[in-house]
Amino acid sequence: MTGSTRTPHVRHPDQDEEDTRMGQPQAQSDGTEAGKPPLRVGMVGYAFMGAAHSQGWRTAGRVFDLPLNPVQAAICGRDATAVRAAADRHGWASTETDWRALVERDDIDLVDICTPGDSHAEIALAALAAGKHVLCEKPLANTVEEATTMVRAAEEAYRRGQVAMVGFNYRRVPATALARRMVAEGRLGALRHVRVTYLQDWLVDPQFPLTWRLRKEQAGSGSLGDLGAHIIDLAQYLVGERLAGVSALTETFVRQRPLPTGATSGLSAVSAAGTGEVTVDDAALFTARFPSGALASFEATRYATGRKNALRIELNGERGSLAFDLERLNELSFHDGTEPGAEAGFRRILVTEPDHPYLDAWWPPGHGLGYEHTFVHQARDLVHAIAEGRRPEPSFADGLQVQRVLAAVEESAEKNSVYTPIAV
To answer: Where would I find the GFO/IDH/MocA-like oxidoreductase domain in this sequence (predicted)?
Structure first.
């Protein structure tokens, strides 16, 4: 990104009235609530993930009683016209076209990185060096080496009072947070099996253009890093252990695709003349082992025709089982294996009660949440970590662990699925 433009953005008063939700205090003209110090956020990237993160920052302080008040200070993108439109749409006060200018600003406390993976390390390292807190989208980096450097920088920054978090938002679904609590309480007993799939179909059409997500130099990997990173983190989070080793297969089904024309979001583009090579995987399947002895299987693909965003996970233990389906994200299925056989079976937990994670701040029981709320919860948790001076979860170290699993999967696939231990 080159060149810089700093354009103050003033919102219409009607927008402020419309955005005040659920009886929360009205913001002052500088975006802060009376008596609460601001947390001034600068975000790099404005496409799909940028829009999702914007929703989180815009809403968190209106729903939750936070110790700091998030202020959407600036948003950055290379296209001045497009980034200004994103600022207007998502409520950012100013724009930049050079991320370096954003990082150097004195009125930015936290840098939120929503760019392709090839720029994560450079932006995060610069932001930490500039004294900022950092939120970085997953996967943390494109290589283990980059991620290791980021972890070291984050540890040094933590000693200076800064925090760094990686954005695995599916931890913030109330149902998965409840599942984690139930596993930790021993409701399933010793775990035996973990099965996870993440299925999408947006690449089924061989004429879909060659966007950045299909280029290794930008994305790092394909479905493995895009979808697999999510389910690796989610499985480790729910189990409470890190994977020990993997045996993997990967495949690229369509190796040449039309080149895109104009701007792309990674998930959408328009074809132009000519073709280019797909340099990442289209699908990844692998088995794995946890140190406790539990066995796991993972599937990540963007070729599951008819599956738009189907993430499913099931855990089987000696005393019970849990199952979660992202397409029914307000529900958690639980089987209590200690019940009499005549009454046993999976039962549905409707995860909308005030006692469930995050839900005391939302709607009455039975009123469900959606995908976008995970980013609100992510912002909420990060704000609390900053205010309390503690390491947020998932940390950059957690992101590095996922990166090591991704590397082991690729290594195993290259070696005809040989079992590959996860590097420590």
So the answer is: 178-322
Write the CB contacts of 341 (distance below 8 Å, at least 6 apart in sequence): none
pLDDT in tens, 368-422: 999 999 999 999 999 999 999 999 999 999 999 999 999 999 999 999 999 999 9
Domain ranges of the chain: 13-168, 171-370+395-421
CA-to-CA separations, 371 to 41, 238, 309, 328, 393, in angstroms, rounded: 22, 19, 11, 11, 19
CA nearest neighbour of 46 among 103, 85, 5, 101: 85
Check residue 27 and give its pLDDT: 44
Asked if residues 305 and 202 have their Cβ atoms less than 8 Å apart, the reply is no
Tokens of 60: 């968190």
**Angle in degrees, 0-180, between the axes of helices 229-239 and 396-414, rounded to the nearest 10:** 120
Task: Judge: domain 171-370+395-421, CATH 3.40.50.450.
Answer: no
Instruction: For residues 47 and 423, give the distance between their C-alpha atoms in angstroms, rounded to a whole number.
Output: 34
C-alpha distances out from residue 18 to 13, 15, 156, Å: 9, 5, 42
Alpha helices in 30-79 (DSSP H): 48-63
Question: Within its chain, how far is the Cα of 257 from the centroid?
Answer: 27
Q: What is the pLDDT of residue 263?
A: 61
What is the model's pLDDT at position 244? 99
Specify the DSSP class assigned to residue 228: I
Report the C-alpha gap between 247 and 417 in whole angstroms: 5
pLDDT single digits (tens) 210-247: 999 999 999 999 999 999 999 999 999 999 999 999 99
For residue 283, give the H/E element and its range.
Answer: strand 283-289
Specify the pLDDT at position 13.
Answer: 34
The domain 13-168 belongs to what CATH superfamily?
NAD(P)-binding Rossmann-like Domain (3.40.50.720)
Residues 45, 49, 54, 60: what is their CA dihedral angle, to the nearest 10 degrees? -140
pTM listed for this prediction: 0.90
Work out the burial of residue 365: count CB atoms within 10 Å of its CB; fewer than 13 is exposed, 13-18 middle, 19 or more buried: exposed
Low-confidence stretches of the chain (pLDDT < 70) are 1-34, 262-273
CB 293 within 8 A of CB 305: no
Q: Any bridge partners for residue 335, and if so which? A: 321
For residue 383, count CB atoms less than 10 angstroms from its CB and return exposed for 0-12, middle for 13-18, buried for 19 or more: buried
Backbone angles phi, psi at 256, to 5 degrees: -130, 135
Tell me the CB-side half-sphere exposure of residue 30, using CA atoms within 13 A: 11
Looking at residue 59, its amino acid is T
Who contacts 34 (Cβ-Cβ below 8 Å, separation ≥6)? Answer: 25, 28
